[in-house]
Amino acid sequence: MSYNNVSVWACLPRTQRGQPIVLNVDPKGKKLLYANNNSVIIRDIDNPAIADVYTEHSVQVNVAQYAPSGFYICSGDQHGKVRIWDTVNPEKLLKAEYQPIGGAIRDLCWSHDSQRICVAGDGRGKYAHVFMMDTGASVKGDLAGHTKAINSVSWKPTRPFRIVTGSEDNKVAFFEGPPFTFKCTKSDHTKFVQTVRYSPNGDYFATGGFDGKIFLYEGKDGELKKELGSPAHKGGVYAVSWSPDSKKLLSASGDKTCKIWDIESGECTEFTMGTDVEDQQVSCIWVGDHLLTVALSGFITYLDPNNPSKPKKIIKGHNKPITGVALSADLSNLYTTGVDGTVTVWDVATGDNDRISGKGHGNHVSSIIIRNDGVYTSGIDDTIKVIDPVERAYNGRSISLGSQPKMIASREDCIVAVTTKEICVIRDDKKVGCFPINWDGLCIACNGMGSDEIAVGGADNLVHIYTLKDNTLTEKTTLQHLGAITDMAYSPDSRYLVACDSNRKVIAYSLPSYEVCNKIEWGFHNARVNCVAWSPDSKLVASGSLDTMIIIWSLSQPTKHIIIKNSHPQAQITGLVWLSNSRVVSTGHDGIVKSWDVKF
């Protein structure tokens, strides 16, 4: 019995309106680095479907940066801790952990020799600190000079060493060292300074602020050289990034545009990224031939300087927790739903994805099923909506339920939904049967193969078995659990029903008697079990839990199981589907999709 993680389809950067995010790349320009919640994502730039995740922070990570040597990554979190970890070994071994400031770290940078690190943020009076990477010892000097939190920091990549910081006090501070001493502040910005970045050759540094302005300064002495544009953008400048030859500058703005500036002439090439609020650009980075920007939606856009009207590609996905998953009948497409109302469709073979467009639920999507006439989703807006799988867009069909749906299930002739108040039977986009319930319905499953049986799980710790004939539900029997029923699934061969509950149990029932299979209740999870799924041959069951584990159970060997510990570290499992009898796909609260090969 064994398992192997085959792929990781990463989440997008976590964004927040009015807050810039920090991107970074490895020294070779092959890997993109960004944060999402307590995860650090390492993503291949040429093939974004290849990714790795670091999850050792216990709170939200705000920034992560490669050392110039490429051997280490330093990541800083909301509580002021930094972790320095190895990039060579797959285990990502911890080199050191320090707490240089007492509040959130918003940005950090390395010295060009990879020996020193400067962190900046909101440190309750101490806004920046420089320390040695290997010992944590403070580098002598004082980085005072600001009266409010520092948003951005940059270290001159060539000698003599210089550090520049940008703050919410609308000022840019310039330091010489080591030991670092305050030299001057620049008050050219009239609003928050959001980004400061040295050019690769160290000759200049650029600053951008919420006043829409970009200024260039001499790298060695901090003297103002010029302003780009007048102003550079109509909205706040969230990020700037230099070209490798230090001759051009890429800027990203809340006015929904990005611009490439020629440093000498001041001329620019403008990229209009869209018209919606979600198209605001909150970060950018220039690495080799790639110009990447991040929108408020989390989308990563690859700009094409030769064709500003059309990007090379756009990387989509989730940047909020995933709530559910469904697999198309031909096994080619995987659909995932999010707490923010988004739906993403993934190509199973390549990992490429696309966001479902059109007017969806606008908020939490609670369930998804796939039928011959479309993909159906239910949301907390009390409706079921339909996606056209060819157009990859909501087609306008909507079914009002009158109360909040918890889950929907499909039969050949109808859809059945369980809401907070009733069980609904839906045919031709209309409710043709409503059956009130006096307990909270949580999940539902329909038996296939022409059966008329439906199972509904409730917060009353019971699985209610019904028969559905002529739009009428008749309760057949109930199955007792010791916790609320959280998910259920009939086996593909219609011979079994598996149910899981909040009491950590997974129980398989044999049909038609609904007796417990092998008289064994599976109970190796440590917390509420969220989801269950059958393998195509009806021999294996996968269960995912709040305890971050996936467990594979076997009907033929009921006393044996495969435990995938920390399958989504620090994130609960929210959905499972089988691609084959040996490969299972999991989704998590971390917004990540993973696939696993299992051998029983």
TrEMBL record:
WD repeats lie at residues 54-95, 143-176, 186-227, 230-271, 315-356, 525-556. GO terms for cellular component: cortical actin cytoskeleton. It is found in: Cytoplasm. Its main location: cytoplasm. InterPro entries: WD40/YVTN_repeat-like_dom_sf, WD40_PAC1, WD40_repeat_CS, WD40_repeat_dom_sf, WD40_rpt. Pfam families: WD40 (PF00400). CDD domains: WD40. GO terms for biological process: actin filament depolymerization; locomotion; regulation of actin filament depolymerization; regulation of actin filament polymerization; sarcomere organization. Keywords: Actin-binding, Cytoplasm, Repeat, WD repeat. GO terms for molecular function: actin filament binding. Belongs to the WD repeat AIP1 family. This is Actin-interacting protein 1. It comes from Halocaridina rubra. The lineage of its organism: Eukaryota, Metazoa, Ecdysozoa, Arthropoda, Crustacea.
